[in-house]
Every structure is written in structure tokens, then in C-alpha cells.
Amino acid sequence: MNTPEQISEQYFTAWEAGDFDTLSGLLADGVDFVGTLGRASGREECLRGLRGLGRIVEKIEVQARVANDTDVITWFNLHTIGAPPTPTANWSHVEDGQITRIRVTFDPRAILAQRDH
Q1: Domain extent at residue 24
Q2: Are the C-beta atoms of residues 72 and 5 closer than 8 Å to each other?
Q3: How many domains does the chain have?
Q4: Whole-angstrom distance, CA of residue 39 vs CA of residue 35
Q5: Is the pLDDT reported for residue 49 higher than 80?
Q6: With 90 as the cut, is the pLDDT of residue 116 above it?
Q7: Which of 98, 95, 59, 101 is nearest to 76 (CA)?
Q8: How many whole angstroms separate alpha carbon 6 and alpha carbon 1?
Q9: Which InterPro entries does the record cross-reference, listed alphabetically (predicted)?
Q10: What is the CATH number of the domain that holds 84?
């Protein structure tokens, strides 16, 4: 079984590539997501949110990843269409090889300004 750190790396690689089949396998059925731009409960709702934001994601530039036996914090620059890179923190909790909780925080103003144009 992969470590939480490896699962987190696979999550970001798949999201950046738009590989939602791989993402689906990394998320637990009951995954709970809370982020700056919304909430999602369950795998399908979480995937819908990732697909939505994925339409404007150009690149995910991971700066650092810190992990223990169940939790991973990833600090990255989120590059989106028309906005400067957005520093972002993502905390993921992993149980039995799948992500069960995700919390994300960033300043959304530049992304929202581009969306409104």
C-alpha cells in the first residue's frame, strides 16, 4: 500500500493531468472536502469540484510536502488561466490507502477576478 505522501503526490499529478479516473481511486467514497471556494461531500461531488477548478488550472507547482502516518500538508503554487500563481495549502487525511478529508486554503481574489471577466 502506498504511503500518505505517495497518495498525495499521485492526487496532485492526476489532478494536474486531468486524470479523473486515477483521482477517483484515490478518494474514499465518503471523502469530505472544505475549501476556500466551496465544500463537497462524497467522491462524486468532490470530483465535480476538482473538474470545475481543473478547467482553469494550468499548472500545480508543489513547493513542499510534509507527511506523517495519516496526514499530508502540501504547499503549492496554483497556476490558473489569467491569474498570477496562487500560494495554496492543502491538508489531506488518508485512511486505508484513500483520502478521506481534504482542507484547502488560499487567497481567491485573483482567481475570482479572472472568472468574473
Answers
A1: 4-115
A2: yes
A3: 1
A4: 6
A5: yes
A6: no
A7: 59
A8: 10
A9: NTF2-like_dom_sf, SnoaL-like
A10: 3.10.450.50
